[in-house]
Specification:
alpha/beta, seven-stranded mixed β-sheet
Length: 253
């Protein structure tokens, strides 16, 4: 499929209260990415969309942050908190700018929008490494591609010697996904938006620290570091949940 509507997406819904839309990144879907955040359903209504190609959501020709942003923006309804991780954080940045009136708060962790801090040597090296990986994609198996990709990101996910059906499908989606360093999110628009913002990093990568520092500066966001699981920040569980819970509560007050 080349066109989708928000209603086409599989959306896992848990809890009652103010809506929180959580957008996962590459390779693994909503159930794996946010499995440690389900405790937040004690106070909020969690909406966990599976991006196109994940779960039972129909596929796009390829994953694309700009094509997927309107789908996420539509899920905000009359107003919701928006949370994104990695590639999902890039989508969240675009989605928030599309419907600022529907955003109650915005929290992103280590978005792959590396161009935000282009010129930083660590960031430029990460972009160059990513470009080389995609240049070589046709010579690599999905498992080889995934292992290199995760290693470059310092992902806490381990890549098994044989990929499960879901992981193989996720790797194949990744191999044709639009690279996130092509993103040029509308930072000026986000900076003018009045809702609270939070930018999180994992304290493991000079490149991601530079990206998150610059992003927070440009959009006027709170800045926090949650270490322990590399790039896979939601997997810290209690530490991530505690920081997000405090942020959401403050945003509502």
């Amino acid at each position: 499929m080349t066109e989708l509507a928000a209603a086409d997406l599989e959306v896992i819904r848990l809890g009652e209260g103010p809506r929180v839309v959580l957008v996962h990144g590459s390779v693994v879907g909503a159930r794996v990415t946010w499995r440690r955040q389900l405790a937040l359903a004690d106070r909020w209504s969690l909406w966990l969309p599976n991006r196109p190609g994940f779960g039972t959501s129909p596929s796009l020709t390829r994953g694309d942050f700009e094509a997927e942003a309107p789908l996420v923006a539509a899920l905000l309804g009359d107003g919701a908190h928006l949370v994104g991780h990695s590639y999902g954080a890039v989508i969240a940045l675009y989605a928030a700018a599309l419907r600022p009136e529907a955003v109650r708060s915005l929290a992103v962790s280590e978005p792959g929008s590396l161009r935000v801090a282009a010129g930083n040597p660590s960031v430029d090296a990460m972009i160059a490494g990513g470009r080389e990986l995609y240049r070589l994609a046709s010579t690599l198996t999905p498992r080889q591609f995934l292992e290199i990709f995760r290693g470059n990101l310092h992902s806490a996910h381990r890549t098994p010697s044989e990929l499960s059906a879901d992981l193989l499908a996720g790797a194949r989606l990744l191999m044709r996904e639009r690279p996130p360093w092509e993103a040029n999110p509308p930072l000026d628009d986000l900076g003018r938006a009045p809702y609270p913002k939070l930018v999180l990093s994992g304290g493991h990568s000079e490149a991601f620290e530079a990206v998150c520092d610059e992003l927070a500066r440009r959009i006027g966001a709170e800045r926090a570091v949650i270490a322990g699981r590399g790039h896979t920040i939601p997997a810290t569980g209690a530490a991530y949940n505690q920081r997000l819970r405090r942020f959401l509560t403050d945003a509502e007050s």
